[in-house]
Design brief:
By secondary structure, this protein is of the alpha/beta class. The protein contains 18 helices and 20 strands.
């Protein structure tokens, strides 16, 4: 099998590939596939088929025979810790003891208090065999309150302390970071799930000795794993360190975002020691505390936090003042953040050549992206009808932007209405329909913000979503004969403007 990664020199933390296939033949193939971009492997014996487990009992050395030149971790994970072990705890410990002489360099031993005495003999056997002990705890649904003391306890039991926990918000992520940074001993502290992804990318900031990954096309060993080639090529794993400047995209949802690919590609092309990381964010004020702690040199802000970002910025540009929405934060020398709105020009870039043909426009939504779209269109003299599920929010947006536009000497007409439905005649406002909400964005592949509205075929329909490129509302519009525009052009234009701002704070 051809390796999909190029050779490189790793720095801490190392990449550990979790081997989760049902057979050793499949696991060995995965090892060869990713060999050039990993430093360690973890063999998940609990995920092997019963027949394969029986084969390893008969000949334990088969488990490590092909793992030349890398450290290897022996793991038989219990169901309570996210594993698949089906038999008794006595049998599990016996299997681990039996496989210790096979040649593994490390063993993962769950170190919770219940039944720990039964595992202490296994730990003693491992140490006698010269095998490194990783004392681990797994919290599948939450982050515990006693992280500091738990890391100390694990360090007293094993050579490495490992905690994998599922943060349920950005506050939990901060607690994991604080505990990891405060712990002096060798450790691995990782967040599982969508709120924990950044911990697997920014291992250096956690002081982690290694990070776990899974192959893209097999069962993940834990929620939130990233494949080794993505860690290397997209997130420059092994090239980051104390001098690295960190940037981020903050939003919810965030898995769809193209921003990490866009900005990291440009950082690499320009030879910059910078890394761009995705954060799922539920509480933006809490995230800004994290941004200062890391620190983050620049932040891209996406739905639903653009209005919160405008409030969080110490200083703002005219676009943020006008729209009260901010999609870019730049760290200043005093540690505060300056807010900029690059959505306005980004939004217009995709339709600028057609602006003169629109007698009016309908904007769906009343959030930060809608504010940018309404302001951009009205500034160009296009009358705008703002439609929102909650009419009062559309009315508030119209009143606020109307006042701002009048102060700027603009007299463009703005009005508000409920979302259009069956039989609605938008008149001139139907020349351009702009969809600014998150309805239809990945993973909401079926969402349509105006399912009852019947397109005439004369409208231009502009959905600022770019993932997926063809949303349900765009598909319906195209089928009706409308011209359609997705958010890819807007994304590229606003991201380019963001990148140029990021460059201003890089050496």
């Amino acid at each position: 099998m051809i390796s999909i990664c190029t050779g490189w020199t790793s720095d801490m933390p190392d990449i550990c590939l979790c081997l989760t296939a049902e057979t050793m033949a499949q696991n060995n193939a995965l090892f060869r596939q990713y060999r050039s971009c990993i430093d360690m492997v973890e063999l998940r014996v609990d995920l092997l088929s019963d027949a394969e487990q029986a084969t390893l009992r008969a000949d334990p050395e088969l488990a490590v025979r092909e793992f030349h030149g890398v450290d290897s971790i022996l793991t038989v994970r219990r169901k309570i810790d996210g594993g698949s072990w089906k038999r008794s705890e006595v049998e599990r410990i016996a299997l681990l003891e039996h496989m210790l002489p096979a040649g593994f360099t490390s063993i993962d031993v769950e170190a919770d208090q219940v039944g720990l005495s039964d595992r202490l003999s296994l730990i003693a056997s491992a140490r006698a065999a010269g095998v490194t002990v990783i004392a681990s705890r797994h919290y599948m649904e939450y982050v515990p309150t006693d992280l500091d003391s738990e890391l100390q306890r694990l360090s007293a039991i094993g050579d490495y302390a490992k905690i994998a926990a599922r943060p349920n918000g950005i506050a939990d992520f901060r607690r994991l970071l604080h505990a990891a940074r405060a712990h002096a001993g060798p450790h691995v502290v990782l967040g599982m799930g969508s709120y924990g992804v950044a911990s697997r990318i920014m291992g250096h900031t956690f002081g982690n000795r290694f990070t776990f990954s899974s192959a893209a096309d097999v069962q993940q060993a834990a929620s939130g794993h990233i494949s080794p080639d993505v860690l290397q090529t997209l997130y420059a794993h092994g090239e980051t360190g104390s001098a690295t400047r960190y940037f981020a995209v903050a939003g919810d949802p965030i898995a769809h975002s193209k921003s990490p690919e866009y900005h990291n590609r440009r950082f690499r092309a320009d030879g910059l020691n910078a890394l761009y990381v995705p954060f799922r964010v539920d509480d933006f004020d809490e995230f800004m505390e994290l941004a200062r702690e890391l620190p983050l040199s620049g932040i891209s802000v996406t739905v639903p936090h653009k209005e919160s970002a405008a409030r969080a910025a110490a200083t703002v540009n005219e676009g943020v003042t006008a729209t009260r929405a901010c999609n870019t934060l730049i760290r200043q020398s005093d540690g505060s953040y300056r807010g900029v709105n690059t959505d306005i020009e980004g939004f217009l870039s995709a339709i600028r050549t057609r602006l003169s043909t629109f007698r009016g426009a309908t904007v769906l939504g009343a959030g930060g992206a809608a504010r940018a779209a309404v302001y951009a269109l009205a500034s160009e003299g296009v009358p705008v009808l703002v439609c929102n599920r909650t009419l009062s929010r559309a009315q508030t947006l119209v009143a606020e932007l109307g006042e701002i536009l009048r102060d700027e000497g603009q007299s463009t007409a703005l009005s508000a209405a409920a979302l259009p439905g069956d039989g609605t005649d938008l008149g001139a406002y139907g020349d351009l329909i702009v969809q600014t909400s998150s309805v239809g964005m990945h993973p909401d592949h079926e969402g349509d913000p105006i399912p009852a509205y019947r397109f005439c075929g004369t409208e231009t329909v502009y959905d600022i979503i770019y993932t997926p490129p063809m949303t349900p509302v765009l598909k319906r519009a195209q089928q009706a004969g409308c011209a359609i525009v997705n958010g890819s052009g807007m994304f590229d234009a606003q991201a380019d403007a963001q990148y140029r701002l990021f460059r201003t704070v890089l050496p």
